[in-house]
């Protein structure tokens, strides 16, 4: 019978994993001795509290809270001591206003095992994960929550990373699945393997549950550190900046933008070239790079100030919007809005992806999510239309009418059947700009918008069309 997870090596202790993530010597453990008493495990005496470590420290000098779950070879369920330690880390992060990083590895036990795993997901241990989930929901949009999956997360353990803002997984090592492979086979007759069902590559390419696929734990940790460098500690702070006033004359790479769009309307080009020409040092940290590649999301800086990037990618599906792309972009925009990052949108979209399957799966509702994300955002929004924005996709992709503070068009742009100059005369865009001067206009626009004060009508919360 196929098991839910196979561990070919002994994993590092949770304490060691936290130390590898944080600055050397900065980790301070919370509730260090909680659960440090002999276990009733017949396999031997083992302190159950050591399976989870929580505390605080620094990453590149910035305060963070962290917890790590790691069960090297025992497959222990989430006991009350484990729950308390995770909740302690989340509470500490909320009280101090710092990001929280969870390192997840919940061991080998199969989800259907009645001796422990089902109990840990709401049975004999009283629904311990429920309290963790509630704390994560309370922290959502208040502090950044990042998950490092360095082993198996089965059953309810898979929900915790999904509740956070970003999930990083390691190829051939990380697994997340709600139901074990042998349960699926027994109930439905569908045979599948652990990698195919819940491996890191699957979640980075098919399900969209992960945001980065790392080759090893070291690369995963470095990605998390870089990600943190673009995010503020909490929703009341601005993202960390290293102000560096830009030279507004075109730099070496920008003149290439005057010829990046092919003369043939249906010929693709790489939108990365456009995005990277606008950002400081051409550096873009992509999120979900392998999922819905017809749209690009990620972080970069302009004059040393972090910003979020959303861009159609003509190299994939001609840049059409489909269900996966709209969900990917909508969640990213809402994350940027929650943590005070301006959003730069680069538009080249021929329309929505046509198809019966897309309609049956509710593409209209999913596009409404993207509309909602742009419309509710109060951070600076700057949009550049490089080639085409046809039909409803013009409205959806950060249009001026949807709330963009500044909207520019290249001379090659067409909004529906309307050329760039006519679109400007009708007030659909603020101006027609030379492609090589795109960074110039974005820099000046973001400078002016740093003092933007946006508000929304008072309400308990909106009802986003999920």
UniProtKB/TrEMBL annotation:
CoA carboxyltransferase C-terminal domain span: 256-466
Start and end residues of each CoA carboxyltransferase N-terminal domain: 1-243
Gene Ontology CC annotations of this record: acetyl-CoA carboxylase complex
GO molecular function terms listed in the Swiss-Prot or TrEMBL record: propionyl-CoA carboxylase activity
Superkingdom of the organism of origin: Bacteria
Descriptive protein name: Acyl-CoA carboxylase subunit beta
């Amino acid at each position: 019978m196929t098991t839910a997870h196979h561990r070919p090596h002994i994993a590092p202790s949770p304490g060691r994993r936290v130390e590898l993530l944080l600055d050397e010597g900065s980790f301070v453990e919370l509730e260090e001795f909680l659960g440090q008493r002999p276990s009733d495990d017949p396999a031997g005496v083992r302190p159950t509290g050591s399976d989870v470590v929580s505390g605080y420290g620094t990453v590149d000098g910035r305060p963070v809270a962290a917890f790590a779950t790691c069960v090297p070879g025992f497959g222990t369920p989430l006991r009350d001591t484990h729950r308390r330690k995770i909740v302690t880390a989340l509470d500490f992060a909320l009280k101090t206003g710092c990001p929280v990083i969870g390192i997840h590895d919940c061991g080998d036990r199969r989800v259907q095992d009645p001796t422990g795993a089902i109990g840990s997901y709401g049975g004999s241990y009283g629904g311990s994960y429920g309290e963790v989930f509630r704390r994560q929901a309370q922290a959502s949009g208040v502090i950044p929550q990042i998950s490092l999956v360095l082993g198996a997360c089965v059953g309810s353990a898979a929900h915790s990373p999904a509740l956070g803002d970003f999930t990083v997984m390691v190829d051939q090592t990380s697994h997340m699945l709600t139901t074990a492979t042998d349960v699926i086979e027994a109930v439905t007759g569908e045979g599948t393997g652990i990698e195919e069902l819940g491996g890191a590559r699957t979640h980075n390419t098919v399900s969209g549950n992960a945001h980065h696929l790392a080759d090893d734990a070291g690369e995963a940790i470095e990605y998390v550190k870089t990600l943190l460098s673009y995010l503020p500690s909490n929703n009341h702070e601005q993202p960390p900046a290293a102000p560096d006033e830009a030279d507004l004359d075109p730099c070496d790479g920008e003149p290439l933008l005057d010829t990046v769009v092919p003369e043939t309307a249906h010929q693709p080009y790489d939108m990365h070239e456009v995005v990277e020409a606008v950002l400081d040092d051409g550096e873009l940290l992509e999120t979900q790079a392998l999922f819905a590649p017809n749209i690009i999301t990620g972080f970069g800086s302009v004059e040393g100030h972090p910003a979020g990037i959303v861009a159609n990618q003509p190299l994939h599906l001609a840049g059409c919007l489909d269900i996966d792309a709209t969900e990917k972009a909508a969640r990213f925009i809402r994350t940027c809005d929650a943590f005070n990052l301006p959003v730069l949108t680069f538009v080249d979209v021929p329309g929505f992806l046509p198809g019966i399957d897309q309609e049956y799966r509710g593409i209209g509702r999913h596009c409404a999510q993207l509309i909602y994300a742009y419309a509710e955002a109060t951070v600076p929004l700057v949009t550049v239309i490089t080639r085409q924005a046809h039909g409803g996709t013009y409205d959806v992709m950060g249009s001026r009418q949807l709330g963009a503070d500044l909207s520019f068009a290249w001379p090659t742009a067409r909004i529906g059947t309307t050329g760039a100059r006519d679109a400007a005369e009708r007030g659909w865009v603020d101006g027609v700009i030379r492609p090589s001067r795109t960074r110039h206009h974005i820099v000046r626009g973001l400078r002016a918008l740093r003092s933007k004060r946006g508000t929304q009508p008072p309400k308990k919360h909106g009802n986003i069309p999920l």
